[in-house]
DNA sequence: TTCTATTGTGTAACCGATTACACAAACATA
DNA sequence: TATGTTTGTGTAATCGGTTACACAATAGAA
C-alpha cells in the first residue's frame, strides 16, 4: 500500500498538500491538485484509516452489540445497520454478546481501544463505561435520555391480544419473555389490558431466555403446565413455531384446537404451513434507522428526535382462527 | 482513556519500560514492573489498539465477508467465527456483500485501510487484491492452494440423493443452486451419480440465487415447471420449506405425495411439522475452525493442513417417507 | 504605489503506541 | 583486576496520516 509520502514525492509536493487534496480542506492550487490526483491514481493510493484514526481519535468503525446473532431477529437488524453505515462511509465491528455481561464489557473495551466512532447496541446496559462515544439503543430502550430506535411493545402486546380476543379464545396463555428484556413487560401489559377489557381469563407462562438452544426445554414445560391451552400469545416466533410443531405432532389441529400468534415476523415464519400469524417488527428498519441516527450523532448533525419509534403490525396467516364478528 | 505516557509518569519510568511490561518483552526490573503495574491499575489503563496497529502494520481485526447475513446459514457461521476469534484476542469487521462484486472489492479495500490481520471469506473471489494478508475461505472453495474450511459437497449431494433413492421416488426433481456457488455443482454431481447408479430418472430445476427475497418467485416457477414432482432434492432448507409450505397449501400430503429433503439444517428446520429432513452442514464449526485456522496463519504458527473438510450428515425428520428395504 | 487580504505551500509537531540503540550497572569469567 | 556478558532503563525514531503555523506570492483596495 502506497503512503502519502510516496504520493507527495511523485507529485512533487509536500504531504500537507496531498492531505489537503484528500480532505478537500484548505487551499490547493489547480496545478498541484492535478499533479496529486495523478499521483494518487498512478500509485493506486488510498489513505490508511489507522493513521487517520490515531490522529483524529475517532475511527470510521462502529461497534454493533447483539445479544445473539443466531437469534434470527438480529441478522436482519444487523443487515439494516450494515446497509446504512456502509452508505455513510463506516464499517461495523461485530460484538456478539451472548447475553453475557462480561463479554459485553469486554467488547466495549475493545471498541474504545479501536477509537470506535459510535456504538449500536441491542443489549441492555451498554451505556455505562462509554464517556464521549455516542450510542444508539436498538429495539430495547434503556432510559429516556438515551438515543434509541424501538417499537411500541405495548401496542404490539395489544395487537396480539386483540387478534386473539377477536377469535373466541377459550384458554388463553400468554408467554412472557425474559424479565431482563425490557420489552417483555410492556408487551405483557398491553396484552393484559386487552384481555381485561374484554373480560377474558388468561394464564401466564414465563420463559427464561430468548436463546435458540432453550426452546425444546421450554416447549416441553409449556405443554406440561398448560395442556389445555387453546390460544397462545407467544413471546416470539421461534417459540410460537416450536409450540406449533409440538402441537401438530400431538395431533392437535392448528388453528381449530389451538391457535397461536407469534412476535417478530421472522423471515421463515411465512415458510411454514400453517403460516404463523404474528406481530411484525421491522428489524431491518430498526437497524437502518438506528445506524442513520448514530451517524448523525457522530457527525454532530442536527438530530430531530432522540428516539424513533417504528410501528409494529399484525400479520395474519393461518395459525389463527377466523375472526368472530359482533363480539 | 489514559495513555502510556501518563502511566510512565505516574510510575516514574519511561514509556519504553511501560511498553515492556505491557508486552512482556525485554528486561524489566522487579521494582519497575511493580510500579508500572500499580500505575496501570490506578489509571485503568489499556493500550490503544490503533496506535499499536499503526506501528505494527497489523491490527487485531479480522474481516468477515458474507454473501448475505440474512441467509440463515451465515449468522451461525459468523457466530462460530466470532467465538473463535474472540477467544484468540481478535475482533470481526462485518462485511455483508449481498452477492455484489463491487461491494466485495470495497470491503477488501476497507479491510486493508484498517490494517486488518486476516480475512475470513464466504464469498467467491476475495483473494485477488490481497497481497500479504492471510485469507481463509469458508464453505466455498476457490482453488487448491488456498486455505479453506469446507464440507464435502459431493458427499452431501450423494447423501441427499441416497436418502431419496431409498424411499421409492417416482418423479425426482433436483434443485440446483446458483452456478456461481461452487458447491452447487459438486452436490449436483453427487446426487446425479447416485440416481444414475440406481437407475432413477430425474429432472433438474435451476435456482438463480440463494437470497431470501427470491424464494416466492422461485417456488412458483418450480410448481409450474414440475407440477408432478413427488421427490424433491432441494438446494437448501429455505427452498425446501418454501416448497413444503406451498405443497401443504395445495393439499399435497407430505411426505406421502411429495417428499423432500433440504440442505443445511437451519435452526428452524426442526421447528416445522412435518420436520424437514436435510443434510446438516456444520455452519458453526465452519466458522469456528476457519477462524482458528486463520489466526494460526496470522501468527505464523504451524498449520497442519491448509484445507479442513468437515463432514455433513443426514438428518431424518418427517419430510421423507419410510425407507423401503431390499431395493 | 502601498498595505492588507486571500491564496498556496511547506515544515514540523502530533496522535499513542513499539522498538532500535545507547548506555550504565551488576554480574560472571578468566 | 580486566574483560565480557547479562540485565535494566531511557532517548528518540517510527508507523501514516492531519493540521497549526510560518512564510511567500498574488490579488484587491485605498
TrEMBL record, chains A, B:
Residues 2-56 form the HTH lacI-type domain. It comes from the Bacteria. Gene3D superfamilies: 3.40.50.2300, lambda repressor-like DNA-binding domains. SMART domains: HTH_LACI. Residues 1-18 form the HTH merR-type domain. Keywords: DNA-binding, Repressor, Transcription, Transcription regulation. GO terms for molecular function: DNA-binding transcription factor activity; transcription cis-regulatory region binding. InterPro entries: HTH_LacI (IPR000843), LacI/GalR-like_sensor (IPR046335), Lambda_DNA-bd_dom_sf (IPR010982), MerR-type_HTH_dom (IPR000551), Peripla_BP_I (IPR028082). Coiled coil: none annotated. SUPFAM superfamilies: lambda repressor-like DNA-binding domains (SSF47413), Periplasmic binding protein-like I (SSF53822). It holds the Pfam family Peripla_BP_3. This is Transcriptional regulator, LacI family. It comes from Pisciglobus halotolerans.
